[in-house]
Design goal:
single chain; 322 residues; mainly alpha; two-stranded antiparallel sheet; 2 strands
C-alpha cells in the first residue's frame, strides 16, 4: 500500500491539521515566529498525525480532540528533534539546515522549550488533561531511553534485552502515544490499552528499520551509513554480531567501537563485519515478527478503510526505503 493509499481515508483531516498545527506554533515574538514558520514549512511525512487520525477513525469520526491530540504529538516530536540536533551538533535534518545551524544553540533550545510549553497550554486551554497525561508519560520515557542509551554506550555492554528497553522508551513510546491518544479522542476508552500496545510494537519495528538503514547504502536511504557506529550506539545488527561472531571479529569490532569509531575506513570495516555475520538478516527477522504481531492485534476490529490503512502503515514502516 502506497503512502497516498494509506492516507486516503484521512486526506481532509490531514489538510485541516496543517493549518491547525501552523496556528498552534504562532507567536507574537517575531524571531520565534520566524523560526517556527521555518519548522512548519519543512515538515516531514506527518507519520505521527497519521497514526493519531487512523487510530481515532478506527472507532469513529475524526473530531476536534483528535486534531488536538495530533498537534500535541507533533509539538513533542518537533521539540525533541530540535533539542536532539543541538545535543548531536547536527547541521542538517531531512535535507534542510537544522535550527541550531541557522540560529545557534541557544535559540534552538529555547524554541524547543517553547514548543513544550505550547503542549501544556494547549492541553489546559482545551481541557484535554487526559491527553496531557499520555504525552507526559511519553516525555518521561523518551528521556529515560536516551539516558539509558548514553549510559550503555559508554560501557559498550548493551544486551538485546536492554536494547529493546531503550527503543521501547526512546522511539516506540511516542508512536504508542499517538495510537492511544487517537483512541481516547474517539471516546472508545475500552480499547486505549490495546491501541497503546499496538503502537508500541509498531514503534519497535520502526526503530529496528532505522537501525538497519545505518548498515545500508547512504545514497539510497538518505542517512550517513555508519552514523550509529560514530556515536558508539549499539543497535540490534551490531548486538547480534557481537554475540554470535567469531572471537576475531568480536575483538575487532570492540576495538573499532572503543578506539576507531570516528574513522571512515574503520567504520566501513565494522559495517562489513556486521553484514558478513548476518546482523542485518537477524534484525530484519525480528522486525517482521513484530510487524506480524502488530497486525494480529487489529484482527478483532471491524473491517474499515481506517483498519486497512493501519495495516498498510505497519507494512510501510517495515518496507520504507528511507
Amino acid at each position: 500500500m502506497s503512502p497516498q493509499e494509506i492516507t486516503k481515508p484521512i486526506q481532509d483531516e490531514l489538510q485541516a491539521f496543517e493549518a491547525y498545527f501552523a496556528q498552534t506554533m504562532k507567536s507574537e515574538v517575531p524571531l520565534l515566529d520566524k523560526v517556527t514558520h521555518y519548522l512548519v514549512k519543512r515538515k516531514g511525512k506527518q507519520v505521527r498525525p497519521v497514526f493519531v487520525f487512523l487510530s481515532c477513525k478506527l472507532f469513529g469520526p475524526v473530531n476536534q480532540k483528535a486534531l488536538d491530540a495530533a498537534a500535541l504529538v507533533e509539538l513533542l516530536h518537533t521539540a525533541t528533534l530540535v533539542h536532539d540536533d543541538v545535543v548531536d551538533d547536527a547541521n542538517e535534518r531531512r535535507g534542510y539546515f537544522s535550527i541550531n545551524a541557522l540560529w545557534k544553540n541557544k535559540i534552538a533550545v529555547l524554541v524547543g522549550d517553547y514548543m513544550l510549553s505550547r503542549i501544556l497550554l494547549l492541553s489546559l486551554e482545551k481541557e484535554n488533561t487526559d491527553l496531557l497525561a499520555v504525552i507526559a508519560r511519553s516525555v518521561r520515557e523518551m528521556s529515560e531511553g536516551e539516558l539509558l542509551q548514553i549510559e550503555k554506550a559508554r560501557k559498550l555492554d548493551i544486551t538485546e534485552e536492554v536494547y529493546f528497553d531503550v527503543i521501547r522508551k526512546k522511539t516506540a513510546s511516542l508512536i504508542s502515544t499517538c495510537c492511544e491518544a487517537g483512541c481516547i479522542a474517539s471516546g472508545n476508552l475500552a480499547h486505549r490499552e490495546s491501541m497503546r500496545k499496538f503502537g508500541e510494537i509498531v514503534g519497535l519495528a520502526f526503530q529496528i528499520k532505522d537501525d538497519i538503514f545505518d548498515y545500508g547504502n547512504a545514497t539510497e536511504i538518505g542517512k550517513p551509513t555508519g552514523n550509529d557506529i560514530r556515536e558508539q550506539k549499539l543497535t540490534l545488527p551490531m548486538i547480534y554480531t557481537l554475540n554470535t561472531a567469531s572471537v576475531t571479529d568480536r575483538n575487532e569490532l570492540h576495538y573499532i567501537l572503543r578506539n576507531r569509531y570516528d574513522e571512515e575506513k574503520s567504520i566501513r570495516r565494522a559495517v562489513d563485519i556486521v553484514q558478513k555475520n548476518g546482523g542485518i538478516e537477524y534484525a530484519s527477522k525480528k522486525m517482521f515478527e513484530l510487524g506480524d504481531e502488530a497486525k494480529k492485534m487489529l484482527v478483532t476490529f471491524e473491517d474499515s478503510d481506517a483498519k486497512a490503512s493501519l495495516l498498510g502503515l505497519v507494512d510501510y514502516t517495515m518496507n520504507r526505503v528511507k
